[in-house]
Structures are given as structure tokens and as C-alpha cells.
Amino acid sequence: MYIEMQDKTGQVSEALQQDTIKLLNFAADFIHLPENKEMAITYVLNDEIQEINREYRGKDVPTDVVSLEYEPEDIAFGEDFEMPEELQAELEDFDSFIGELYISIEKAQEQADNYGHRYERELGFLAVHGFLHINGYDHMVPEDEKVMFALQEEILTAYGLTR
């Protein structure tokens, strides 16, 4: 899986970014995601993630991670639209892009302090949590929460990123 990484904060080391890429590739293998998939991660501060949270989720508060899942079938065309071959090829390329994550490093540090574990573990947790969201997992109802949370803990433990 290809992961585009951007650190808008200038505070996430290259080593930690590379560790996150390795972790998410491990997670992708763990859930048997096809190798041709792509995603993006952007590290931000609380003010920026609050804007993103407000825009996409209607919640005007900073949060730890925002996951934006992309599904090509969500693109709607008019009834009479005939798709040019060039556009069809672009949409097929777009099908490989599964989504993007925004992670607040300030929230990650705050939560690591509150939970009593390492900052690196919290960033890894948030990356896996968001990754599972963009791959269709959710925790809106108790049954789904049990599945998603068990899977994210299984991935983190198997990778060796424990509390």
C-alpha cells in the first residue's frame, strides 16, 4: 500500500512517520487489503483538526483523528452522461485511493498523558483506528464497536505496539 505522509506541524520525526507507514502496511496485510491501495495521512494541530471536524462531521471541537473514506461509487453523474474513456481510466485509478486521515498531534500527546502510555503508541493507535474507519469499520453501535476495537487491539499487539 502506498501512503502519502504530510506533517503540517513540523513536529513529527521522519522516523515516526516511517514507523507509521510500516504499521499501516502491517495492518493492511492483516485485513488482507489489496496491495494497490493508497491513502494519505496529515499530521495537524488542534485548530486545524477542529476546522476539519466542523466541516466534515459538524462538530466544532478538536478531535484526535478524522477519517475520510473515499468510495468511487459515490460519484454521481447525470442520467444522460456518457463517460469518456479518459475519465473512466482516471476513475479506475481513483478506486485505489481509499481515503485520508488527519491526526492531531496535540490530542495524541494529551491522550497519551491521560492514558499513561507513550506518545508513539497513541499515534499508532490513532493511525490504525482511522485506517480501520476508511476500510469500512465503525463503532456507532455496540456490536460494531466490539468488532472494531478488538481488531485494532489485535493489530497493535501483533505489531508489538502495546500500552
Task: Note down, in words, how this protein is organized.
The protein is of the alpha/beta class. The chain has one domain (2-159): Collagenase (Catalytic Domain) (3-Layer(aba) Sandwich). The longest helix has 18 residues, at 142-159. The chain has helices spanning 14-30, 46-57, 85-94, 105-115, 119-134, 142-159, and strands at 2-7, 38-44, 65-69, 97-104. It has a 4-stranded mixed beta sheet with strand order 1-2-4-3, sandwiched between helices. α1 (14-30) crosses α5 (119-134). It is globular and about 55 Å long. β1 (2-7), α1 (14-30) and β2 form a beta-alpha-beta unit. InterPro entries: MetalPrtase_cat_dom_sf_prd, YbeY, YbeY_CS. Its main location: cytoplasm. It comes from Pseudolactococcus raffinolactis. Zn(2+) binds at residues 129, 133, 139. Its EC number is 3.1.-.-.
Task: Please supply descriptive tags for the structure shown above.
163 residues, alpha/beta, Collagenase (Catalytic Domain), 4-stranded mixed sheet, 4 strands
